[in-house]
Amino acid sequence: MKVDYIIVGAGLAGLSMAHLCRRYCKTFVLLDDDKRTSSKVAGGMFNPVVLKRFTSIWESQAQLDFAEVFYPETERLVNETFYHRLPIYRKFASIEEQNNWFLACDHPLTTAYLNPQLKTEKIPHIKSEYFFGEVYNTGYLDVKKFVQSYQNYLFQNHLLIKEHFDFNVLHIEKEQVLYNHIRAKQIVFAEGFSMQNNPFFNYLPLDGTKGELLYVKIPDLKLKSIVKATVFIIPVGNDIYKVGATYNWQDKTDDRTTEARSELIAGLEALIDCDYEIIDHVAGVRPTVKDRRPLVGSHYKHQNVYILNGLGTRGVLLGPYLADKLIQNIENNVPLDANINVARYYKKLQLIK
């Protein structure tokens, strides 16, 4: 088999790369063993500001604009619906938070995304002494449905090989990459936290941040928006809600914990005043980087070996946007922004001058 790209990893990053290869008429094959991916347990919420501090996000409008085309395009391809535009209401915990919101409403980088008029009308069964702030251009991606439906499409079209990637049979040459029976021009590793097992990139500071969330049935809530307080609550249909998420910087396993469950329950009960039933509890390790910036670009030695990783908690918007940046860099020599270019670490580690 001869292709332009081998892509390793079929989570948000890898699938984004695959879809853009398809868009730009580049041939590819994707390999994934389906053993570990944070994408399937992601909350999936997207928004253009940091909801904790009401601060701006790098190139947020460009990311939103790209997603607004990318996800409907993928929905049409696989004949599924997983991209949902919903308002987000940020619950305020104090007058001080209200004041910080008003300051952000006047800031040139965030003013376009925040409603200066507080939402003072009550949301049934949601406790709020200090009201809510509405964030524009928001919603959620049903990440699990996106990943599964796109993987199914690729598998049915013989573009996804479900197997463990064996680095021992990978051969890198100057003009091509060889893997078993596959001959490719480039290889892109989009493995998420599994990058720690990758000999080409395992020295990079991918910390990993474990996150856990609950699926909860709340028949009386009837919420039609996302609410963010100490936890977020996302309506996903049939009276089911996602409640999340926790952050653990020490535990690097995918095991569910009673501590995280208790934390999420406490946050939920502080937010709502009606009965609920826990349906499921999931956990995964997000691919976060020490400097909170992605890892995108070529290997310092092998110019046909690439990485697309470090999407962190914002993979819904960053995945497609960064995949496009990478493919434009590879195919059209468009320079990568210094904020995302993995070469920043090659210099720090003295791998390049």
TrEMBL record:
<feature type="domain" description="FAD dependent oxidoreductase">
    <location>
        <begin position="4"/>
        <end position="326"/>
    </location>
</feature>
<dbReference type="Pfam" id="PF01266">
    <property type="entry name" value="DAO"/>
</dbReference>
<dbReference type="InterPro" id="IPR006076">
    <property type="entry name" value="FAD-dep_OxRdtase"/>
</dbReference>
<dbReference type="GO" id="GO:0005737">
    <property type="term" value="C:cytoplasm"/>
</dbReference>
<protein>
    <submittedName>
        <fullName>Glycine/D-amino acid oxidase</fullName>
    </submittedName>
</protein>
<dbReference type="InterPro" id="IPR036188">
    <property type="entry name" value="FAD/NAD-bd_sf"/>
</dbReference>
<dbReference type="GO" id="GO:0016491">
    <property type="term" value="F:oxidoreductase activity"/>
</dbReference>
<keyword id="KW-0560">Oxidoreductase</keyword>
